[in-house]
Amino acid sequence: MPDNPGPPPISPPQPPPSVPPGNESQARTWNMLCHLSALAGYVIPFGNILGPLLIWQIKKNEFPSVEEHGKAALNFQLTVLIALFVGGMAAFLLSFVCIGFLLIPVVIGIALCGLIFAIIAGIKANNGEAYRYPWSLTLVT
Question: pLDDT at position 21, please?
C-alpha cells in the first residue's frame, strides 16, 4: 500500500494588502483640495481652472485617486467657465434690445452652482466617496 500523506497543509489566509492609514488620509485630503481649489477663482482670475489643474498635475502620480478627482473638477470648472462666458455674452448683446437683462439672474445662478457643487464635491471627496458633477462636459480625458 502506498503511503497517503493526506491533503497538503492549508496555509493561513493572507490579509489583503491595505493602504497605510496616513496615505489614505492624505489621498482624501488631496482629492478634496482638487475640488475646493476651484474656489481660488473668486480671488485669482482663472483660479478656478488653475487650482484643480495644478493639484491634479502635481499629485496624480503620487495618489491615483487624484487623477479621477482632478479630471472631474477641471471638467466641471471648464464647463462653468464656458457657460458663464456664453451667458454673459448673450446677456450683454441682448441687453441692447432690452431682453438681456433677463439673463443676468441665469448667469448669477450658474456662478452660484459652480460654487455650491464644488463645495459638495469637496465634502464627498473628503468622505472617500466619488462625486459626479451634474451637467459637466467631458473635455479632459
Answer: 57
